[in-house]
Write a structure and sequence with these properties.
With about 100 residues, this protein is α+β, with helices and mostly antiparallel strands. It is built from two helices and four strands; from the N terminus they run βββαβα. The strands form two sheets. It has a two-stranded antiparallel sheet. It has a two-stranded parallel sheet with strand order 3-4. A hairpin with a 5-residue loop joins strand 1 and strand 2. The relative contact order is 0.22.
Length: about 100
């Protein structure tokens, strides 16, 4: 059973050089630090949307691998998660 703090990576079927199928787990993992900082001039959104663009380009070129984003909130922030609109964008892009 998966909890909110666990990430499940779906197996991807690939083909060996001898033609037999094999299942492997592949994922592109990104780390975004300093999210929701109160400091002037500190904006994590450029990094966040770079991950969204990377996921789009990877899938456009045929990647079946999962895209995983790990977010570390900024030190001293009272926020526990990203704003709802950003969570929704990640969900729509199937970024875990």
């Amino acid at each position: 059973r998966q909890t909110d703090n666990e990430i499940a990576v779906a197996p991807v079927t690939t083909t060996r050089t001898n033609g037999s199928p094999t299942k492997r787990k592949w994922a592109y993992a990104f780390l975004l630090g300093g999210a929701m900082s109160d400091k002037q001039g500190s904006d994590y959104r450029g990094g966040l949307y770079s991950v969204v663009v990377a996921a789009h380009v990877l899938r456009k070129h045929g990647s079946k691998a999962d895209v995983v984003l790990m977010v570390q909130m900024a030190a001293g922030t009272t926020h526990q998660k990203l704003p709802e609109i950003e969570e929704r964008v990640l969900e729509l892009m199937k970024i875990r």
